[in-house]
Design a protein that fits this description.
The chain is 22% helix and 34% strand. The chain is an alpha+beta fold. α4 crosses α5. The longest helix is centred in the middle third of the chain and has 18 residues.
Length: 372
């Protein structure tokens, strides 16, 4: 028999006047799991986190923790802890006093508080920092103090609201590693809110993509990236090209898709698709191979012209004009692969196993491909 979820959200709805911030959200989160809610600003993810933490009361729905209804409980009576975007450290207290604040409020013995504070500072690798003030710490160190303080009362669920948004790029990467280490070492259940898809992809066991107060899709990072359920999800979790087409008959396990750029041959089509279906072909930039122009005809090979190149170090991102349609193509390891310039003619080898979406879910004024 499957273990019941540690945290269950049932039909959560929250409005602010005429605005529905969260609309009928259902979600189950397992013990020891790190789940990220992602989406653009205003999609409802932070409101949902505040509902879980007791900082906002839902207009409808139920929050259950360990099969106990906690919907009406205030934050201090829930077995949850929240780390806010600005860390919310007390500037007049030392690091040790900040970490032990919750234990002090609950009147735990001084010796127990001191021992627990030392354990937590060691856990977040801040041994010897107990006497410092928050102002004497870097942003990453302040973040670790906020994490240690939130863990002091051993919450069943740790809630993180955009916790890395104030850090520089390199420090964000470092803190992602720290958060996943803490999750693993403590078997800590974490609900993480971010608008950064790369951040969510790198640390999450599962991702829930939100828009306009609803969960559009939930799954592992690989499922969300490789098999998105809509154009919105596909574009939110990475760069994407879309090519409209009509599915043809298949032979020997293959199928054809008639598009404005010619006929694509795909090796395998998921169950449920039939000849004549109008589809949108998802082409990730890294799945398209770029090379010098070749005249010989091969399946899924196109000719195009470079119109833009953007060097980012590990990748060069090209925009290639193909039959009046711009396609985004990523070329990795630029030092050891041929670079192209604006105006160069190139060949593009499209993948034989693209993900297909119903064309009705793709609204494209031009009726062709698009990329962010």
């Amino acid at each position: 028999m499957a273990e019941p979820p540690l945290l269950r959200l049932e039909g959560i709805t929250k409005t602010y006047g005429p605005i529905t911030a969260v609309c009928e959200v259902n979600a189950d989160i397992r013990r020891g799991e790190l789940v990220s809610f992602v989406g653009p600003s205003g999609c409802g993810k932070t409101t949902l986190l505040r509902v879980v933490g007791g900082f906002a009361r839902p207009d409808a729905g139920r929050v259950a923790l360990d099969e106990e209804d906690i919907t009406s409980l205030p934050p201090n009576q829930r077995a949850t802890a929240m780390v806010f975007q600005n860390y919310a450290l007390f500037p007049h207290l030392t690091v040790a006093e900040n970490v032990g604040y919750g234990l002090t409020i609950r009147r735990r013995p001084a010796a127990e508080i001191a021992r627990r504070v030392e354990e937590l500072l060691s856990l977040v690798q801040l041994q010897g920092f107990g006497r410092r003030r928050p102002a004497q710490l870097s942003g990453g160190q302040q973040q670790r103090v906020a994490l240690a303080r939130s863990l002091s009362l051993q919450p069943k669920v740790l809630l993180l609201d955009e916790p890395l948004s104030n850090l520089d790029a390199n420090l964000r990467i470092q803190m992602r590693t720290e958060i996943t280490r803490l999750q693993r070492d403590l078997n800590q259940t974490i609900v993480f809110v971010t608008h950064d898809q790369e951040e969510a992809m790198s640390i999450s066991d599962r991702i829930m993509v939100m828009d306009r107060g609803r969960i559009l899709q939930a799954g592992t990072p690989a499922e969300i990236y490789e098999r998105p359920g809509s154009r919105f999800v596909a574009r939110f979790v990475g760069a994407a090209n879309f090519l409209d087409g009509t599915l043809g008959n298949g032979t020997s396990g293959r199928a054809s898709i008639a598009t404005r750029l010619g006929t694509l041959i795909v090796e395998k089509v998921a169950n449920g698709w039939m000849a004549g279906d109008r589809v949108a072909v998802l082409l990730r930039p890294e799945a398209i191979r770029l090379g010098p122009p070749e005249d010989r005809a091969e399946p899924n090979r196109l000719l195009g012209t470079i119109t833009h190149a953007m060097y980012t170090g590990a990748v060069i991102r090209y925009t290639v004009q193909v039959g009046g349609i711009p396609l985004t193509v990523d070329l990795s390891d630029p030092r050891h692969t041929p670079a192209f310039r604006r105006g160069d003619r190139v060949s593009l080898q499209l993948p034989s196993d693209p993900h297909l979406l119903p064309r009705e879910s793709v609204v494209d004024p031009g009726g062709g491909a698009s990329s962010p």
